[in-house]
Specification:
Elements (H helix, E strand, L loop, with lengths): L5 H11 L5 H8 L24 E2 L8 H9 L1 H13 L5 E6 L2 E13 L2 E2 L8 H8 L12 E6 L4 E5 L6 E9 L5 E5 L2 E3 L6 E4 L5 E5 L5 E9 L5 H18 L2
Antiparallel strand pairs: 1-10, 2-3, 3-4, 3-5, 5-12, 6-11, 7-10, 7-12, 8-9, 8-11
């Protein structure tokens, strides 16, 4: 399949070597037998990326500056997004997943549709500063950065996301004392307010809020640390083009 984009990838190969995109090419050729059963709902699985459904942030040294900054400013992030909710900010909208939309699941986007949302800078300035600095080099521009608000009683049904070359980093911003849980590959966990967690969302996952308050997390789609610079560049080019052609 990469042959379709050869003219767009020649510069990457000239810069990094002719075999620098072998794993990307293999990903498009891999069949369903090459993946974990609980990744069956994902569309693309790249081999050679170290993964488990839940990942240990402590073992991901490259991410520590980002995680440390997020956790250090978590109280300020909580206050500014709570104020946005109190003020019923126009930046809060129904969350739209590629599988559909839910009225009991809202979002405040900092980045969406491959574009930043500068209008939110005045609404969540502390979060915006993290997005512009520590998060900048990790965020996958194919995907989003947003606050996810699960309203009381909300359920996110089991699903897998599209691929495994990005990971979902979450900062638990405003978490009810009980009734909230996220499960990845049949392993449930609770959010710990002010702390980050990270998982591979190509594995089936689901979540719920059975409390009487909003559950708010900051969700960040980040590149898998095992990707090379060449692979990042190529994946961005290829999937931007696939989206343009298919609307995926």
């Amino acid at each position: 399949m990469l042959d379709m984009f050869e003219d767009k990838l020649q510069g990457i190969k000239a810069k990094y070597g002719q075999d620098c995109l072998d794993r990307v090419a293999e990903m498009f050729d891999a069949g369903p037998e090459d993946r974990h059963p609980l990744q069956s709902g994902a569309k693309y699985i790249m081999k050679g990326l170290s993964t488990t459904p839940w990942l240990d942030i402590e073992n991901m040294c490259e991410l520590k500056p980002l995680v440390q900054r997020l956790e250090a400013v978590a109280p300020a992030i909580k206050e500014e997004v709570r104020e946005a909710v109190r003020q019923k900010s126009s930046t809060l909208v129904n969350y739209e997943h590629y599988l559909g939309a839910q009225k009991d699941w809202s979002a405040l986007y900092l980045y969406r549709n491959e574009k930043p949302k500068p209008e939110v800078q005045q609404v969540v300035p502390v979060t915006w500063d993290v997005f512009q600095n520590e998060l900048r080099d990790w965020h996958c521009p194919l995907l989003e950065v947003h606050f996810s608000l699960l309203h009381p009683g909300a359920e996110i049904k089991p699903h897998s996301d599209l691929w495994n070359f990005t990971l979902n980093l979450q900062l638990a911003v405003d978490i009810p004392e009980a009734g909230c849980e996220i499960t990845v590959a049949n392993e449930p966990r609770n959010w710990q307010e002010g702390k980050c967690l990270i998982f591979d969302y190509s594995y089936e996952h689901h979540a719920h809020n059975h409390s009487d308050q909003n559950r708010i997390c900051l969700l960040m789609d980040i590149w898998h640390p095992d990707l090379t610079a060449a692979e990042r560049e190529a994946l961005h080019i290829v999937f931007s083009e696939i989206r343009r052609l298919t609307g995926m």
